[in-house]
Design brief:
Layout (H helix, E strand, L loop, with lengths): L6 E6 L4 H7 L1 E7 L2 E6 L2 H20 L5 H32 L3 E8 L2 E7 L5 H31 L4 H20 L8 H14 L2 H30 L3 H28 L5 H4 L1 E2 L4 E2 L4 H9 L6 E5 L5 E6 H5 L15 E2 L5 E2 L18 E6 L8 E6 H14 L13
Parallel strand pairs: 1-5, 3-4, 7-8, 11-12
Antiparallel strand pairs: 2-3, 4-5, 6-13, 8-9, 9-10, 12-13
Protein backbone atom coordinates (compact mmCIF):
# COMPACT_ATOMS: atom_id res chain seq x y z
CA UNK A 1 0.00 0.00 0.00
CA UNK A 2 3.02 2.30 0.08
CA UNK A 3 4.00 4.95 2.61
CA UNK A 4 2.32 5.60 5.91
CA UNK A 5 -0.67 7.92 6.14
CA UNK A 6 -0.70 11.65 6.57
CA UNK A 7 -1.23 13.71 9.67
CA UNK A 8 -4.65 15.29 9.80
CA UNK A 9 -6.26 17.25 12.56
CA UNK A 10 -7.51 20.51 13.92
CA UNK A 11 -5.62 23.15 15.83
CA UNK A 12 -6.54 26.05 18.05
CA UNK A 13 -3.91 28.74 17.62
CA UNK A 14 -0.64 28.58 15.78
CA UNK A 15 2.93 27.94 16.73
CA UNK A 16 6.23 26.95 15.23
CA UNK A 17 5.96 25.11 11.96
CA UNK A 18 2.27 25.95 11.57
CA UNK A 19 3.13 29.66 11.41
CA UNK A 20 5.37 28.99 8.43
CA UNK A 21 2.63 26.98 6.76
CA UNK A 22 0.05 29.73 7.32
CA UNK A 23 2.31 32.47 5.97
CA UNK A 24 2.91 30.57 2.71
CA UNK A 25 -0.64 29.47 1.95
CA UNK A 26 -2.42 30.10 -1.35
CA UNK A 27 -6.09 30.85 -0.78
CA UNK A 28 -8.37 28.83 -3.08
CA UNK A 29 -11.78 30.07 -1.97
CA UNK A 30 -14.48 29.04 0.49
CA UNK A 31 -16.45 25.86 1.09
CA UNK A 32 -19.54 26.21 3.27
CA UNK A 33 -18.19 29.61 4.26
CA UNK A 34 -14.83 28.24 5.45
CA UNK A 35 -11.69 29.68 3.76
CA UNK A 36 -9.67 26.91 2.11
CA UNK A 37 -6.02 27.20 1.16
CA UNK A 38 -3.10 25.06 0.09
CA UNK A 39 0.54 25.29 1.03
CA UNK A 40 2.93 24.84 -1.90
CA UNK A 41 4.15 21.60 -0.29
CA UNK A 42 0.79 19.97 -1.11
CA UNK A 43 2.45 19.30 -4.47
CA UNK A 44 4.54 16.73 -2.59
CA UNK A 45 1.39 14.79 -1.67
CA UNK A 46 0.11 15.09 -5.22
CA UNK A 47 3.36 13.86 -6.75
CA UNK A 48 3.71 11.07 -4.19
CA UNK A 49 0.22 9.69 -4.80
CA UNK A 50 0.55 10.00 -8.59
CA UNK A 51 3.88 8.15 -8.62
CA UNK A 52 2.67 5.59 -6.10
CA UNK A 53 -0.46 4.80 -8.10
CA UNK A 54 1.08 5.01 -11.57
CA UNK A 55 4.35 3.25 -10.89
CA UNK A 56 3.54 0.78 -8.10
CA UNK A 57 -0.04 0.25 -6.96
CA UNK A 58 -1.85 -0.02 -10.29
CA UNK A 59 0.77 -2.15 -12.11
CA UNK A 60 0.65 -4.54 -9.14
CA UNK A 61 -3.11 -4.59 -8.52
CA UNK A 62 -4.20 -4.37 -12.18
CA UNK A 63 -1.44 -6.02 -14.23
CA UNK A 64 -1.55 -6.13 -18.00
CA UNK A 65 -2.43 -2.49 -18.59
CA UNK A 66 -0.34 0.07 -20.42
CA UNK A 67 1.86 2.60 -18.62
CA UNK A 68 -0.19 5.38 -20.24
CA UNK A 69 -3.39 4.00 -18.71
CA UNK A 70 -1.84 3.79 -15.26
CA UNK A 71 -0.63 7.39 -15.35
CA UNK A 72 -3.91 8.70 -16.77
CA UNK A 73 -5.77 7.05 -13.90
CA UNK A 74 -3.19 8.08 -11.29
CA UNK A 75 -3.62 11.84 -11.79
CA UNK A 76 -7.39 12.04 -11.13
CA UNK A 77 -6.88 9.44 -8.40
CA UNK A 78 -4.52 11.82 -6.62
CA UNK A 79 -7.09 14.62 -6.95
CA UNK A 80 -9.76 12.40 -5.36
CA UNK A 81 -7.35 11.55 -2.55
CA UNK A 82 -6.70 15.25 -1.85
CA UNK A 83 -10.44 15.88 -1.91
CA UNK A 84 -10.87 13.21 0.77
CA UNK A 85 -8.27 14.96 2.93
CA UNK A 86 -10.21 18.18 2.51
CA UNK A 87 -13.43 16.39 3.51
CA UNK A 88 -11.74 15.23 6.72
CA UNK A 89 -10.78 18.79 7.66
CA UNK A 90 -14.11 20.22 6.59
CA UNK A 91 -15.85 17.82 8.96
CA UNK A 92 -13.77 19.18 11.86
CA UNK A 93 -14.51 22.75 10.81
CA UNK A 94 -18.26 22.37 10.36
CA UNK A 95 -18.77 20.57 13.66
CA UNK A 96 -16.63 23.18 15.43
CA UNK A 97 -18.62 26.02 13.92
CA UNK A 98 -21.90 24.35 14.83
CA UNK A 99 -20.68 24.11 18.42
CA UNK A 100 -19.75 27.79 18.59
CA UNK A 101 -16.01 27.54 17.93
CA UNK A 102 -14.84 29.95 15.24
CA UNK A 103 -13.01 28.48 12.25
CA UNK A 104 -10.20 30.53 10.76
CA UNK A 105 -9.36 28.40 7.73
CA UNK A 106 -8.53 24.96 6.37
CA UNK A 107 -5.07 24.33 4.97
CA UNK A 108 -3.77 21.35 3.00
CA UNK A 109 -0.03 20.83 3.05
CA UNK A 110 2.72 18.23 2.74
CA UNK A 111 1.69 16.06 5.69
CA UNK A 112 -2.05 16.24 5.19
CA UNK A 113 -4.34 18.97 6.41
CA UNK A 114 -5.32 21.12 9.35
CA UNK A 115 -8.43 23.01 10.38
CA UNK A 116 -7.36 26.19 12.15
CA UNK A 117 -9.77 26.92 14.99
CA UNK A 118 -9.91 30.13 17.02
CA UNK A 119 -10.13 29.25 20.67
CA UNK A 120 -10.73 25.95 22.37
CA UNK A 121 -13.77 23.76 22.82
CA UNK A 122 -15.82 24.97 25.82
CA UNK A 123 -16.56 21.46 27.12
CA UNK A 124 -15.26 17.87 26.93
CA UNK A 125 -18.28 16.86 24.86
CA UNK A 126 -17.64 19.55 22.26
CA UNK A 127 -13.95 18.63 22.15
CA UNK A 128 -14.89 14.99 21.55
CA UNK A 129 -17.42 15.81 18.84
CA UNK A 130 -14.96 17.99 16.94
CA UNK A 131 -12.18 15.42 17.28
CA UNK A 132 -14.09 12.38 16.02
CA UNK A 133 -15.75 14.21 13.11
CA UNK A 134 -12.67 13.97 10.90
CA UNK A 135 -11.81 10.29 11.38
CA UNK A 136 -15.47 9.27 11.05
CA UNK A 137 -15.64 11.19 7.77
CA UNK A 138 -12.49 9.46 6.50
CA UNK A 139 -13.86 6.04 7.43
CA UNK A 140 -17.21 6.87 5.82
CA UNK A 141 -15.43 8.07 2.67
CA UNK A 142 -13.41 4.87 2.68
CA UNK A 143 -16.53 2.71 2.90
CA UNK A 144 -18.22 4.73 0.15
CA UNK A 145 -15.19 4.38 -2.13
CA UNK A 146 -14.96 0.65 -1.48
CA UNK A 147 -18.63 0.33 -2.41
CA UNK A 148 -17.97 2.42 -5.51
CA UNK A 149 -15.09 0.15 -6.48
CA UNK A 150 -17.36 -2.88 -6.15
CA UNK A 151 -20.01 -1.17 -8.27
CA UNK A 152 -17.50 -0.18 -10.95
CA UNK A 153 -16.16 -3.72 -11.06
CA UNK A 154 -19.71 -5.07 -11.40
CA UNK A 155 -20.44 -2.92 -14.46
CA UNK A 156 -17.14 -3.85 -16.10
CA UNK A 157 -15.15 -0.64 -15.58
CA UNK A 158 -11.43 -0.76 -16.49
CA UNK A 159 -9.41 -2.66 -13.91
CA UNK A 160 -7.06 0.28 -13.33
CA UNK A 161 -9.97 2.56 -12.41
CA UNK A 162 -11.49 -0.05 -10.08
CA UNK A 163 -8.21 -0.67 -8.28
CA UNK A 164 -7.45 3.05 -7.96
CA UNK A 165 -10.82 3.68 -6.31
CA UNK A 166 -10.28 0.60 -4.13
CA UNK A 167 -6.84 1.80 -3.00
CA UNK A 168 -8.07 5.31 -2.20
CA UNK A 169 -10.94 3.79 -0.21
CA UNK A 170 -8.60 1.60 1.82
CA UNK A 171 -6.26 4.54 2.44
CA UNK A 172 -9.14 6.67 3.70
CA UNK A 173 -10.25 3.99 6.12
CA UNK A 174 -6.65 3.57 7.25
CA UNK A 175 -6.24 7.34 7.67
CA UNK A 176 -9.33 7.46 9.83
CA UNK A 177 -8.02 4.68 12.05
CA UNK A 178 -4.47 6.06 12.17
CA UNK A 179 -5.64 9.50 13.26
CA UNK A 180 -7.37 7.93 16.25
CA UNK A 181 -4.03 6.92 17.76
CA UNK A 182 -4.07 8.35 21.32
CA UNK A 183 -1.63 11.22 21.11
CA UNK A 184 -1.91 14.95 20.40
CA UNK A 185 -1.97 16.50 17.86
CA UNK A 186 -3.64 13.52 16.19
CA UNK A 187 -7.41 13.41 16.50
CA UNK A 188 -7.02 10.47 18.86
CA UNK A 189 -5.06 12.75 21.16
CA UNK A 190 -8.01 15.15 21.19
CA UNK A 191 -10.31 12.25 22.01
CA UNK A 192 -8.00 11.21 24.86
CA UNK A 193 -7.91 14.78 26.14
CA UNK A 194 -11.71 15.06 26.04
CA UNK A 195 -12.15 11.79 27.94
CA UNK A 196 -9.58 12.71 30.59
CA UNK A 197 -11.02 16.20 30.89
CA UNK A 198 -14.45 14.69 31.48
CA UNK A 199 -13.17 12.18 34.04
CA UNK A 200 -10.89 14.46 36.06
CA UNK A 201 -12.50 17.83 35.40
CA UNK A 202 -9.00 19.26 34.87
CA UNK A 203 -8.28 20.47 31.36
CA UNK A 204 -4.64 21.31 32.02
CA UNK A 205 -3.99 17.80 33.33
CA UNK A 206 -5.72 16.30 30.29
CA UNK A 207 -3.56 18.48 28.03
CA UNK A 208 -0.37 17.28 29.68
CA UNK A 209 -1.26 13.60 29.40
CA UNK A 210 -2.41 13.92 25.77
CA UNK A 211 0.76 15.72 24.68
CA UNK A 212 2.96 13.20 26.48
CA UNK A 213 1.08 10.44 24.70
CA UNK A 214 1.70 12.27 21.43
CA UNK A 215 5.43 12.39 22.08
CA UNK A 216 5.45 8.71 23.00
CA UNK A 217 3.49 7.77 19.87
CA UNK A 218 5.87 9.81 17.72
CA UNK A 219 8.91 8.19 19.33
CA UNK A 220 7.50 4.72 18.65
CA UNK A 221 6.88 5.68 15.01
CA UNK A 222 10.45 6.93 14.66
CA UNK A 223 11.77 3.71 16.16
CA UNK A 224 9.66 1.55 13.85
CA UNK A 225 10.73 3.61 10.85
CA UNK A 226 14.42 3.27 11.68
CA UNK A 227 13.94 -0.46 12.24
CA UNK A 228 12.21 -0.79 8.88
CA UNK A 229 15.10 0.94 7.12
CA UNK A 230 17.92 -0.86 8.92
CA UNK A 231 16.46 -4.34 9.36
CA UNK A 232 14.34 -4.65 6.22
CA UNK A 233 16.17 -2.25 3.94
CA UNK A 234 12.90 -0.51 3.02
CA UNK A 235 13.09 3.24 2.46
CA UNK A 236 9.36 3.49 3.24
CA UNK A 237 10.54 3.65 6.83
CA UNK A 238 11.88 7.16 6.23
CA UNK A 239 8.31 8.38 5.76
CA UNK A 240 7.39 6.86 9.12
CA UNK A 241 10.41 8.59 10.68
CA UNK A 242 9.28 11.92 9.20
CA UNK A 243 5.75 11.50 10.52
CA UNK A 244 7.04 10.47 13.94
CA UNK A 245 9.39 13.45 14.11
CA UNK A 246 6.60 15.82 13.17
CA UNK A 247 4.31 14.27 15.76
CA UNK A 248 6.94 14.71 18.50
CA UNK A 249 7.55 18.33 17.48
CA UNK A 250 3.85 19.14 17.28
CA UNK A 251 3.14 17.51 20.62
CA UNK A 252 5.91 19.59 22.16
CA UNK A 253 4.45 22.77 20.67
CA UNK A 254 1.01 21.87 22.00
CA UNK A 255 2.51 21.22 25.41
CA UNK A 256 4.06 24.70 25.45
CA UNK A 257 0.78 26.23 24.31
CA UNK A 258 -1.06 24.39 27.07
CA UNK A 259 1.36 25.76 29.66
CA UNK A 260 0.78 29.31 28.41
CA UNK A 261 -2.99 28.79 28.47
CA UNK A 262 -2.87 27.57 32.05
CA UNK A 263 -0.70 30.53 33.04
CA UNK A 264 -3.04 33.01 31.33
CA UNK A 265 -6.02 32.37 33.60
CA UNK A 266 -7.22 35.68 35.03
CA UNK A 267 -4.52 37.64 33.20
CA UNK A 268 -5.26 40.67 31.02
CA UNK A 269 -3.10 42.49 28.49
CA UNK A 270 -1.76 45.11 30.91
CA UNK A 271 -0.43 42.39 33.22
CA UNK A 272 2.06 41.01 30.69
CA UNK A 273 2.66 43.82 28.20
CA UNK A 274 5.96 45.61 27.74
CA UNK A 275 4.91 49.11 28.83
CA UNK A 276 5.61 52.23 26.78
CA UNK A 277 7.68 50.57 24.06
CA UNK A 278 9.89 52.48 21.65
CA UNK A 279 7.85 53.29 18.55
CA UNK A 280 8.75 53.97 14.94
CA UNK A 281 7.40 57.21 13.38
CA UNK A 282 5.92 56.35 10.00
CA UNK A 283 7.58 59.37 8.39
CA UNK A 284 11.11 58.51 9.56
CA UNK A 285 13.51 57.04 7.04
CA UNK A 286 14.98 53.60 7.62
CA UNK A 287 18.41 55.18 8.06
CA UNK A 288 17.25 57.77 10.59
CA UNK A 289 15.29 55.31 12.69
CA UNK A 290 18.12 52.77 12.67
CA UNK A 291 20.64 55.37 13.87
CA UNK A 292 18.47 57.08 16.48
CA UNK A 293 16.35 54.26 17.89
CA UNK A 294 16.78 50.71 16.59
CA UNK A 295 20.49 50.39 17.34
CA UNK A 296 20.02 51.79 20.86
CA UNK A 297 16.84 49.97 21.87
CA UNK A 298 16.64 46.52 23.44
CA UNK A 299 13.50 45.76 21.42
CA UNK A 300 13.40 43.60 18.31
CA UNK A 301 9.98 44.80 17.17
CA UNK A 302 8.61 48.35 16.94
CA UNK A 303 5.04 49.55 16.40
CA UNK A 304 4.91 52.08 13.56
CA UNK A 305 2.86 55.16 14.53
CA UNK A 306 1.20 57.89 12.48
CA UNK A 307 1.07 61.63 13.18
CA UNK A 308 -1.80 61.05 15.62
CA UNK A 309 0.28 58.55 17.60
CA UNK A 310 -1.92 55.62 16.60
CA UNK A 311 -0.50 52.29 15.40
CA UNK A 312 -0.08 51.92 11.64
CA UNK A 313 2.12 48.86 11.25
CA UNK A 314 5.14 46.99 12.59
CA UNK A 315 8.84 46.85 11.78
CA UNK A 316 11.42 44.45 13.18
CA UNK A 317 15.19 44.51 13.39
CA UNK A 318 15.30 41.71 10.85
CA UNK A 319 13.12 43.66 8.44
CA UNK A 320 15.27 46.78 8.83
CA UNK A 321 18.47 44.79 8.34
CA UNK A 322 17.21 43.41 5.04
CA UNK A 323 16.65 46.85 3.51
CA UNK A 324 19.31 47.45 0.80
CA UNK A 325 21.68 50.34 1.48
CA UNK A 326 20.43 52.24 -1.57
CA UNK A 327 16.88 52.13 -0.12
CA UNK A 328 17.82 53.31 3.37
CA UNK A 329 16.16 56.68 2.82
CA UNK A 330 12.72 55.16 2.27
CA UNK A 331 10.02 55.91 4.83
CA UNK A 332 9.30 53.30 7.46
CA UNK A 333 5.65 53.05 6.46
CA UNK A 334 6.71 51.78 3.03
CA UNK A 335 8.39 48.69 4.48
CA UNK A 336 6.24 48.10 7.57
CA UNK A 337 4.20 44.95 8.04
CA UNK A 338 0.48 45.79 8.11
CA UNK A 339 -1.14 45.74 11.55
CA UNK A 340 -4.63 44.14 11.41
CA UNK A 341 -7.24 45.72 13.66
CA UNK A 342 -7.55 42.56 15.78
CA UNK A 343 -3.91 42.96 16.84
CA UNK A 344 -4.74 46.28 18.54
CA UNK A 345 -6.34 45.64 21.93
CA UNK A 346 -7.34 47.53 25.10
CA UNK A 347 -5.40 47.01 28.34
CA UNK A 348 -8.18 44.91 29.87
CA UNK A 349 -8.32 42.40 26.99
CA UNK A 350 -8.15 38.83 28.40
CA UNK A 351 -4.80 37.31 27.55
CA UNK A 352 -6.51 34.00 26.73
CA UNK A 353 -8.27 35.67 23.79
CA UNK A 354 -4.92 36.71 22.29
CA UNK A 355 -3.30 33.29 22.21
CA UNK A 356 -5.11 31.91 19.17
CA UNK A 357 -3.31 33.92 16.56
CA UNK A 358 -0.15 33.86 14.51
CA UNK A 359 2.59 36.09 15.94
CA UNK A 360 2.83 39.06 13.59
CA UNK A 361 6.26 39.22 11.95
CA UNK A 362 7.02 36.14 14.04
CA UNK A 363 7.24 38.26 17.20
CA UNK A 364 4.26 40.50 17.98
CA UNK A 365 1.13 39.20 19.70
CA UNK A 366 -0.65 42.54 20.20
CA UNK A 367 -0.27 46.31 20.45
CA UNK A 368 -2.04 47.71 23.52
CA UNK A 369 -3.65 51.15 23.23
CA UNK A 370 -5.68 53.21 25.65
CA UNK A 371 -8.96 52.24 23.98
CA UNK A 372 -8.16 49.20 21.84
CA UNK A 373 -8.64 49.56 18.08
CA UNK A 374 -10.36 52.93 18.65
CA UNK A 375 -7.49 54.30 20.72
CA UNK A 376 -4.60 56.42 19.50
CA UNK A 377 -2.12 56.18 22.36
CA UNK A 378 0.11 53.10 22.50
CA UNK A 379 0.68 52.13 26.11
CA UNK A 380 2.30 48.75 25.58
CA UNK A 381 2.86 45.72 23.39
CA UNK A 382 2.84 41.98 23.92
CA UNK A 383 5.46 39.80 22.27
CA UNK A 384 6.31 36.12 22.26
CA UNK A 385 9.03 36.91 24.82
CA UNK A 386 6.41 38.41 27.15
CA UNK A 387 4.45 35.15 27.05
CA UNK A 388 7.58 33.15 27.77
CA UNK A 389 8.32 35.43 30.71
CA UNK A 390 4.80 34.85 32.02
CA UNK A 391 5.35 31.09 32.02
CA UNK A 392 8.75 31.39 33.67
CA UNK A 393 7.39 33.60 36.45
CA UNK A 394 4.49 31.20 37.01
CA UNK A 395 6.99 28.39 37.48
CA UNK A 396 9.01 30.51 39.90
CA UNK A 397 6.09 31.68 42.00
CA UNK A 398 3.83 28.64 41.83
CA UNK A 399 0.88 30.85 42.68
CA UNK A 400 -2.21 31.76 40.73
CA UNK A 401 -2.30 35.55 40.58
CA UNK A 402 -1.58 38.18 37.91
CA UNK A 403 2.05 38.59 36.95
CA UNK A 404 3.43 42.16 36.98
CA UNK A 405 4.39 43.77 33.71
CA UNK A 406 8.02 43.80 32.55
CA UNK A 407 10.26 46.35 34.29
CA UNK A 408 7.69 46.70 37.10
CA UNK A 409 8.93 45.94 40.62
CA UNK A 410 7.26 43.03 42.35
Amino acid sequence: MGPSPLLLGHRGGECGLWEVVMRQTLRLGRIAGVPVGVHWSVLVIMALVVVLLGDSVLPTMAPGGSATTYWLVAVPGAVVFLASLLAHELAHALVARRRGVRVRAITLWMLGGVAHLEGEAPSPRTELEIAVAGPLTSVAAGVALLAAAWGLDTVGAPAAVVKAVLWIGVMNAFLGAFNLLPGAPLDGGRVLRAVLWRIHGDRARADRIATRAGKATGAVMIGLGVLEVLALGRLDGLWLVLLGWFLVQSAGAEQRTGIIRAASRGIVARDVMTPHPDTAPAWDSVRTFAEKVATRSRQTVFPVVGFDGGPRGVVTLDLLARVPADHADERLDTIAVALPAEYVVPPDAPLFSLLDRTALAGVLIAVVTDHGAAGNMIIGMITVDDLQRLVQLRHLRRIDRPVPAPNTPG
